[in-house]
Fold these 2 entries.
Entry 1:
Amino acid sequence: MEFRVAEYSDYQSVAELHAVSWQKAYKGIMRQSYLDESVLEDKQLVWQTRLLNPPFSQHVIIAEHQGELAGFICLFGNHNVEFGTIIDNLHVRASAQGKGVAKKLIALAMEWAGKYYPDNGVFLEVLADNANAIKFYESIGANKALKQRGESPCGRHVDEYVYTWKSPEALMEQCVVSV
């Protein structure tokens, strides 16, 4: 498994994995018509924009196995005054799950966050109905800070939780693995 910072040329494969991940995880949560017809186009636009001219506070790391995208993580440093750096996306291809890829991506991302935003906390938002993601985040020491209601890209209102860690270092300690 190889890990590197994402480049603009990665936007299509990142968008495709992001879309497939949403189609699987959000079936029955988001409108099926959105997942079937619009999610890929939405994610292509997001990743073209994010990887074309990324802000200093954005960091995207990808994992590749034999030239194929196995996973990625995207974070924005100092995104929120109260909670700190946000893990905005973490997705791992189904065939690579359970092999430590997500933990390695998080550990590498926390190295970056610890360098540039060491005094910030770390947080993420996860849909309340995404039981697999919640189980994973709780297994790596996440603390449920609050429940909020938001609007999904398909226009449906969804409940989500905000999970936090006190620092990049605290999260990185939970994710040290060799892949």
Entry 2:
Amino acid sequence: MTKSILVSTFILLCAVILESSILSNITFIYIVPDLVLICSIYFSLLNGKIVGETTGFISGILLDFITGIPFGFNCIFRTIIGYVGGIFAKNVIISGFILPMLCVGIGTIAKTLMVNLLGLLFPNVHIYIAGIISYDFLFEFIENVLLAPFVFKFLSFFRKSLAVRSVKDSIDND
């Protein structure tokens, strides 16, 4: 389990750097897709609730540290999304095409709702808050949903290192 979380943390760190340093500086990208959210959902669907909430928390801490938002802002909702995603770990086939898109779509909606709620608790912090009915949300939702199968496929190459159970055990149990 420790190896899985360490590998997941390294992948999340790479995704945070890619998202916050590289993709955010490309001028023709209107809204940056949330690669960290997609990775966290993958880890939670692969390994379950405990790893889901742990990687959600770690991704939140990394984002809080790099983006300068007060510590805990991203941790709260990413931990919840990771835990809820982990509940469905044995019920969702992550190697498909439609279910990863559906899971990431639901995760993006949940993220937006929780960010808007947390924005009420952090009134002095000027964060980007977009409602469900906005172009910003629509672009992020479409980007996340369309990228989900490709990110899931890419992360499946590291499945042996990421899985808490052995890959053979998870195939036999399915």
